[in-house]
Amino acid sequence: MSSPAARRCPTPSARPDTSMMTRPTLPFVSAEEAWFWTMAALIARRDGARLRAGLGRVARPCEPDDVVKCLDTLYRRRRIDLVHARILRLWGERQCAPNPGFALERCDWRLWREALDRLEWPLRVKGIVG
Description:
Blueprint lengths: L3 H5 L10 H4 L8 H16 L17 H13 L5 H13 L11 H20 L5
C-alpha cells in the first residue's frame, strides 16, 4: 500500500493540463480563414505531424475536426454537395481562394462562395467564427 502523502500529491503527468483552460482563444474572422487553418492542420496531420490543442501561436476555439464535422453536417442535410466539398479541398490544399477574374476559376469560385457562405453560420453558432 502506498503512503498517504503519495495519494494526496499526484505526479506531474497525472495533473490536468490547465494551459488550455486559462489561455484565451481567438475565433476566426471568417469561415474562409477557418477553412484554410483546418486544411493546413489536416495536411500537417497527413504528413505525420502530431497536433495538440493550445500549442500554436494563437489559441483557437476548436480542433480541425470540429470544422470538418460542421461541413459533414451540411452535406448530410443536403445543404452542400460533393462538388462543394471537392472545391473546398482542392483550393484549401492550395491555401488560396479561386479567383473569379480568371475564366477557368469562375465556376470554382461560385461553388467556393456557396460552400463557405453555408458553413459560416454553423461555425458562428459554435463560436469558431467571431
